[in-house]
């Protein structure tokens, strides 16, 4: 083993060495090539320069190149004479020097590691310049073939034949200007700057000469009054020294020099007054103009710095590696993909999918509300009179007729206490002889008190009327749900994505199942199968079965599940945990994509900014619908509550939304943790005030009149809504219509989840039995019911331990095998038989 490692190490080090040598030899070849290029460039320059002087002389010898005795005057011999002739005379004229430039510059750039892009640029522009110069000289100096060369001359002839002289001049000028524009990219500022600098230098020269004259005049003065000038000069010399030693900066220097010049000024003025004159040309100034000093010195400084940098490569130990230029992505890849293929369309696989038509829903013929004037009048009078009996005067009363209830809004006279009216709820109900009266005191934001009185003839709010309403059709929501109509007969549309989870409660027969169907129907009318998937849990087995037909369009399931609709409570746990895995997966996808929610993610995916090869995919919304949640909690307890709470807490951003319905809104079903995470609540009629408080955190649900009459809250206000009615035949027609269309090959598959109970071995060793095994057996045999939840309750165990015990009991032969949602059969009839069983077991051991 060790030897293996050793040989491995050896081979790796050998291969590393090999790589190194390979790299070195490659470097050497490149270096050699560049040196050859440099020398060729120099040789060519010499030969071309020499050709300019000796070309005519050598012309006769060109024919006898093979003759060794023939001599040429070119400094680089016959080869040089040949290249000079070919490139200058028969080629591009003096513009052939650009070739020398290209060779030398390429070589030096290569040696100094300057990027290949710059080298390419140089070659390109120099070749362009060579052709333009050759043609220009060929035209303007056509008499001298050496200037333009044969190429320039011939092209000119050709152009003149076709374009005439003026045309050729214009064309040449055009190319020359185009070259200058593209090569040097002159901008107005650049031109202005150049002009300014030219102006400055002219001015400087003028100043300089003026100053020189002035100096000379001072010099003249110096002949008579010598000492002060001496001082100035020595001062200036000192300054020079200072600059050289980098002790003062330019500014101080300029200040000082200006100071000097100002101090000098009167002297020069004085000098003007002297009569002594001198020819300035004959006298050379002893010192240059001081203002030039800093510039020169600065240059020198820069130079020394430059030479410092350039000197460093001479140091053999100091290797400079030229960093490679980063690759430039020419264009945005995502934008190109979108341009080529268009935005990603998630509906493409089922592009022919047709949304169901509204005609599939039934019209109950009562879309408009019938107003019974007489009834309104009687109710109004009763309310006013009852209140008067209690000495409450009303300033104003107004009625709004809704589908099931009429809202009487009253404005009491000043000084009436609201709580007084609120306490009269039962008395008003008595006087109106009606059930389900609800007093809202005050109506939030309206400044009135509301009394809701049920209509004697309530009208049905059909699903058709809410689906066809513009409010739903035009709703720009992620998951719009048309729940029904409010008291003012307005369609009530909410966004499930914003809720983000919904809790639905109501006593049996009050309209929960219809409510769930209304939710699902709304989504089916608005969302394509690619955009939303349902996970349906229906312990009653009959409520949601109709949706089986759309399994391959809209439903999601576990990979090993037979039916997409989950009717077995034990399978719910796996599904919930699988949803938790899906949630985690989606979160990591969102993190990779650097977005905060599913909407942004899908938007980015559609714009092809996310690579499917890295696991990215279009994410459909997932709506988990659980009917009879109470049943689930009773049988599975914490096993269900924990994943539900986790999903409720975290799943909002990644598009998993929960709708949970329960008949029993008691506190052990809707626990604190669940309540805290379900801000949107729908309450159908419940039987007690306590239930109402559990679901709504206040009373009201107990005063509803049933049959789809509901209260909706999303945190603060309570809205009374008449739930839209959708009957079973309508849902059947709808699902049949969708089910008959082309579908995906299978239902949307959720990630696999391996539950703990599935991994438990059946043949459990007797010695490994749980310490509570005997007690558990007694409980099961006494109750004659082999269920884990019974053990949980009786022995106060967790689900996992209870499940393990059941498995051990099965292995021992006390209970029968697992039979879906049914409790297992108990194979031992009573406790006496159980005692015998244990005794026999002991004997056999
Ligand atoms: N929105 C509604 N408009 C008119 N009638 C309704 C409405 N909702 C429900 N009903 C009536 O109430 C009956 C019972 O409704 P539903 O089956 O939805 O009750 P439920 O709360 O699901 O009962 P359970 O919990 O026992 O299943 C329906 O058959 C229907 O006649």
UniProtKB/TrEMBL annotation:
<dbReference type="Pfam" id="PF01580">
    <property type="entry name" value="FtsK_SpoIIIE"/>
</dbReference>
<feature type="transmembrane region" description="Helical">
    <location>
        <begin position="162"/>
        <end position="182"/>
    </location>
</feature>
<keyword id="KW-0238">DNA-binding</keyword>
<keyword id="KW-0547">Nucleotide-binding</keyword>
<dbReference type="GO" id="GO:0007059">
    <property type="term" value="P:chromosome segregation"/>
</dbReference>
<dbReference type="InterPro" id="IPR036388">
    <property type="entry name" value="WH-like_DNA-bd_sf"/>
</dbReference>
<keyword id="KW-0067">ATP-binding</keyword>
<feature type="compositionally biased region" description="Low complexity">
    <location>
        <begin position="256"/>
        <end position="265"/>
    </location>
</feature>
<comment type="similarity">
    <text>Belongs to the FtsK/SpoIIIE/SftA family.</text>
</comment>
<keyword id="KW-1003">Cell membrane</keyword>
<dbReference type="GO" id="GO:0003677">
    <property type="term" value="F:DNA binding"/>
</dbReference>
<keyword id="KW-1133">Transmembrane helix</keyword>
<dbReference type="Pfam" id="PF17854">
    <property type="entry name" value="FtsK_alpha"/>
</dbReference>
<dbReference type="InterPro" id="IPR002543">
    <property type="entry name" value="FtsK_dom"/>
</dbReference>
<feature type="transmembrane region" description="Helical">
    <location>
        <begin position="87"/>
        <end position="111"/>
    </location>
</feature>
<keyword id="KW-0159">Chromosome partition</keyword>
<feature type="coiled-coil region">
    <location>
        <begin position="199"/>
        <end position="226"/>
    </location>
</feature>
<dbReference type="GO" id="GO:0051301">
    <property type="term" value="P:cell division"/>
</dbReference>
<protein>
    <submittedName>
        <fullName>DNA translocase FtsK</fullName>
    </submittedName>
</protein>
<dbReference type="GO" id="GO:0005524">
    <property type="term" value="F:ATP binding"/>
</dbReference>
<feature type="transmembrane region" description="Helical">
    <location>
        <begin position="123"/>
        <end position="142"/>
    </location>
</feature>
<feature type="region of interest" description="Disordered">
    <location>
        <begin position="256"/>
        <end position="277"/>
    </location>
</feature>
<dbReference type="InterPro" id="IPR018541">
    <property type="entry name" value="Ftsk_gamma"/>
</dbReference>
<feature type="transmembrane region" description="Helical">
    <location>
        <begin position="31"/>
        <end position="53"/>
    </location>
</feature>
<dbReference type="InterPro" id="IPR025199">
    <property type="entry name" value="FtsK_4TM"/>
</dbReference>
<feature type="domain" description="FtsK">
    <location>
        <begin position="489"/>
        <end position="693"/>
    </location>
</feature>
<dbReference type="GO" id="GO:0005886">
    <property type="term" value="C:plasma membrane"/>
</dbReference>
<dbReference type="Pfam" id="PF13491">
    <property type="entry name" value="FtsK_4TM"/>
</dbReference>
<feature type="binding site">
    <location>
        <begin position="506"/>
        <end position="513"/>
    </location>
    <ligand>
        <name>ATP</name>
    </ligand>
</feature>
<dbReference type="InterPro" id="IPR027417">
    <property type="entry name" value="P-loop_NTPase"/>
</dbReference>
<keyword id="KW-0175">Coiled coil</keyword>
<dbReference type="InterPro" id="IPR036390">
    <property type="entry name" value="WH_DNA-bd_sf"/>
</dbReference>
<dbReference type="InterPro" id="IPR050206">
    <property type="entry name" value="FtsK/SpoIIIE/SftA"/>
</dbReference>
<keyword id="KW-0472">Membrane</keyword>
<keyword id="KW-0132">Cell division</keyword>
<keyword id="KW-0131">Cell cycle</keyword>
<keyword id="KW-0812">Transmembrane</keyword>
<dbReference type="Pfam" id="PF09397">
    <property type="entry name" value="FtsK_gamma"/>
</dbReference>
<dbReference type="InterPro" id="IPR041027">
    <property type="entry name" value="FtsK_alpha"/>
</dbReference>
């Amino acid at each position: 083993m060790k030897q293996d490692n050793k040989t491995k190490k050896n081979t790796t080090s050998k291969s590393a060495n090999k790589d190194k040598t390979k790299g070195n030899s490659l470097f050497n070849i490149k270096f050699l090539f560049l040196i050859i290029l440099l020398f060729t460039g120099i040789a060519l320059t010499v030969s071309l320069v020499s050709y300019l002087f000796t070309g005519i002389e050598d012309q006769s010898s060109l024919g006898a190149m093979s003759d060794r005795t023939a001599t040429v005057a070119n400094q680089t011999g016959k080869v040089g004479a040949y290249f000079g002739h070919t490139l200058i005379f028969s080629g591009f004229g003096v513009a052939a020097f650009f070739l020398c430039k290209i060779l030398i510059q390429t070589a030096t750039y290569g040696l100094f590691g300057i990027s290949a892009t710059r080298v390419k640029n140089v070659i390109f522009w120099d070749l362009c310049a060579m052709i333009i110069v050759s043609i220009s000289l060929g035209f303007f100096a056509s008499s001298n073939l050496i200037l333009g060369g044969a190429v320039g001359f011939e092209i000119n002839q050709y152009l003149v034949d076709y374009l005439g002289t003026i045309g050729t001049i214009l064309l040449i000028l055009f190319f020359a200007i185009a070259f200058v524009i593209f090569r040097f990219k002159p901008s107005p500022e650049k031109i202005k700057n150049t002009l300014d600098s030219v102006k400055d230098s002219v001015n400087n020269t003028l100043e300089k000469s003026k100053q020189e004259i002035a100096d000379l005049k001072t010099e003249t003065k110096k002949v008579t009054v010598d000492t002060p000038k001496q001082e100035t000069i020595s001062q200036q010399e000192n300054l020079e020294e200072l600059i050289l030693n980098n002790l003062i900066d330019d500014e101080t220097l300029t200040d000082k020099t200006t100071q000097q010049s100002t101090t000098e000024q009167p002297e020069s003025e004085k000098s003007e007054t002297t009569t002594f004159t001198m020819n300035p040309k004959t006298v050379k100034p002893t010192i240059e103009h001081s203002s030039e000093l800093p510039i020169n010195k600065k240059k020198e400084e820069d130079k020394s710095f430059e030479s410092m940098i350039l000197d460093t490569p001479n140091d053999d130990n100091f290797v400079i590696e030229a960093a490679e230029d980063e690759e430039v992505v020419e264009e945005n890849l995502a934008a190109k993909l979108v341009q080529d293929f268009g935005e990603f369309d998630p509906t493409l696989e089922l592009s022919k999918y047709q949304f169901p038509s509204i005609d599939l829903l039934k019209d109950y013929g009562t879309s408009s509300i019938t107003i019974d004037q007489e009834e309104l009048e009687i109710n109004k009078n009763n309310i006013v009179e009852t209140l008067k009996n209690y000495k409450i005067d009303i300033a104003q009363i107004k009625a709004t007729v809704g589908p099931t209830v009429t809202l009487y809004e009253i404005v009491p006279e000043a000084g009436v206490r609201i709580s007084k009216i609120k306490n009269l709820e039962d008395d008003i109900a008595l006087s109106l002889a009606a059930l389900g009266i609800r007093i809202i005191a005050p109506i939030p934001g309206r400044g009135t008190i509301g009394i809701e009185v049920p209509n004697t003839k309530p009208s049905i709010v059909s699903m058709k009327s809410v689906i066809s309403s513009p409010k739903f059709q035009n709703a720009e929501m992620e998951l719009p749900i048309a729940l029904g109509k409010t008291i003012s007969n307005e369609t009530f549309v909410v966004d499930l994505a914003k809720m983000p989870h919904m809790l639905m409660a109501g006593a049996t027969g009050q309209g929960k199942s219809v409510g769930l169907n209304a939710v699902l129907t709304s989504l089916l009318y608005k969302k394509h199968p690619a955009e939303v998937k349902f996970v349906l849990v229906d312990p009653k087995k009959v409520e949601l079965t109709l949706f089986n037909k759309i399994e391959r369009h809209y439903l999601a399931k576990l990979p090993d599940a037979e039916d997409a609709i989950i009717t077995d409570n034990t399978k719910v746990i796996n599904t919930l945990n699988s949803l938790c895995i899906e949630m985690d997966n989606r979160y990591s996808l969102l993190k990779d994509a650097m977005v905060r929610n599913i909407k942004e993610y899908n938007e980015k995916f559609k714009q092809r900014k996310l690579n499917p090869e890295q696991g990215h995919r279009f994410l459909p919304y997932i709506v988990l619908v659980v009917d009879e949640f109470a049943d689930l909690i009773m049988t599975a307890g914490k096993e269900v509550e924990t994943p539900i709470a986790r999903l409720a807490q975290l799943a909002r951003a990644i598009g998993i939304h929960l709708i949970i319905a329960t008949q029993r809104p008691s506190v052990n079903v809707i626990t604190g943790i669940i309540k805290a995470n379900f801000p949107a609540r729908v309450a159908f009629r419940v039987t007690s005030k306590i239930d109402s408080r559990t679901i709504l955190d206040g009373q009201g649900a107990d005063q509803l009149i049933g049959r789809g009459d509901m209260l909706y809250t999303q945190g603060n206000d309570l809205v009374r809504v008449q739930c839209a009615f959708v009957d079973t035949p309508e849902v059947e027609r709808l699902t049949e219509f969708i089910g008959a269309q082309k579908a995906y090959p299978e239902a949307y598959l959720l990630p696999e989840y391996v539950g703990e109970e599935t991994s438990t071995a059946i043949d459990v060793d007797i010695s490994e039995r749980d310490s509570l095994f005997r007690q558990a057996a007694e409980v099961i045999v006494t109750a004659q019911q082999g269920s884990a939840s019974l053990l949980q309750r009786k022995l106060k165990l967790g689900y996992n331990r209870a499940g393990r015990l059941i498995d051990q009991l099965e292995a021992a032969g006390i209970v029968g095998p697992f039979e879906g949602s049914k409790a297992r059969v108990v194979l031992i009839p009573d406790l006496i038989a159980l005692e015998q069983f244990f005794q026999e077991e002991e004997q056999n051991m």
